[in-house]
Amino acid sequence: NAGVTQTPKFQVLKTGQSMTLQCAQDMNHEYMSWYRQDPGMGLRLIHYSVGAGITDQGEVPNGYNVSRSTTEDFPLRLLSAAPSQTSVYFCASTLGGGRTEAFFGQGTRLTVV
Amino acid sequence: GESVGLHLPTLSVQEGDNSIINCAYSNSASDYFIWYKQESGKGPQFIIDIRSNMDKRQGQRVTVLLNKTVKHLSLQIAATQPGDSAVYFCAEISGYSTLTFGKGTMLLVSP
Questions:
Q1: Searching chain A, which residue's CA lies closest to the CA of residue B48?
Q2: Count of CB atoms within 10 A of residue A102's CB?
Q3: Residue A66, min C-alpha distance to chain B (Å)
Q4: Which residue among B42, B96, B102 places its CB closest to the CB of A106?
């Protein structure tokens, strides 16, 4: 049981490049979400999903796309990277049904130059 | 927008002391309030939650208190250990299990 797995752990992009951050969970959790964490700040919600085929925007969705084709996977796409997207990205999953414990991945540290 | 915030950015304690980390919230409609611990280089880890209709909840060495009158949340850690050194976040949850986080408090435990 691996929990929530994020890849890659580190990534450097040039401004304007695109990439996909991968997130997979093996706990059959219904809810998945993406957060970004900037220095000295708490995590902010980018996008979330309440089940396969269903996604919605969070607090800071601009510049990111998501899809949820399976229960297990929830990739985050950066369409055209900007220096303002330099951050640490965390994926999380929750069982749903009123359960509150979210399980987080180890994070992806992204630098856009 | 509504948010969850913290009073103190850094708390330094001696090993064996009790630690109290405070948090103010503004959204009275939240269903649950949660404390997370984040160690360096890792993702946040769930510690304990409290439902909005409760005042107190205890776990192993931790107690969370909720004062709805003044919209205040606290995490008490008994007999603090060096392994408790981390950043602690309070968060609120509502609806689809999405979290709104505060900015975090760094807890430093000296041996």
A1: A101
A2: 27
A3: 16
A4: B42
To the nearest whole number, what is the mean pLDDT of chain B?
Answer: 89
In chain B, what residues touch A31 (CB-CB under 8 Å)? 96-98
- Chain B residues with beta carbon closer than 8 angstroms to that of A32: none
Residues B84/B62, Cβ–Cβ less than 8 Å: no
When CB atoms are compared, the residue of B42, B89, B93 closest to A42 is: B89
E strand or H helix at A76:
strand A76-78
Q: B40: part of which helix (H) or strand (E)?
A: none
Q: What are phi and psi of A109, to 5 degrees?
A: -90, 115
CA distances from B100 to A12, A81, B25 (A): 28, 25, 10
A97-110 pLDDT, tens digit per residue, is 777 899 999 999 99
Angle, alpha carbons A62-B26-B99 (nearest 5°)? 45
A96 neighbourhood in chain B, CB within 8 Å: 97
Read off the pLDDT of residues B36-66 as tens digits, 9 standing for 90 and up: 999 988 999 999 999 999 999 999 999 999 9
8 Å CB contact of B34 and A100: yes
> Shortest CB distance from A100 goes to which of B4, B49, B89?
B49
Judged against a pLDDT cut of 50, whether residue B3 lies above it is answered with no
Count the Cβ atoms, other than its own, within 10 Å of residue B40: 7
> pLDDT tens digit string along B58-100?
999 999 999 999 999 999 999 999 999 999 999 998 776 788 9
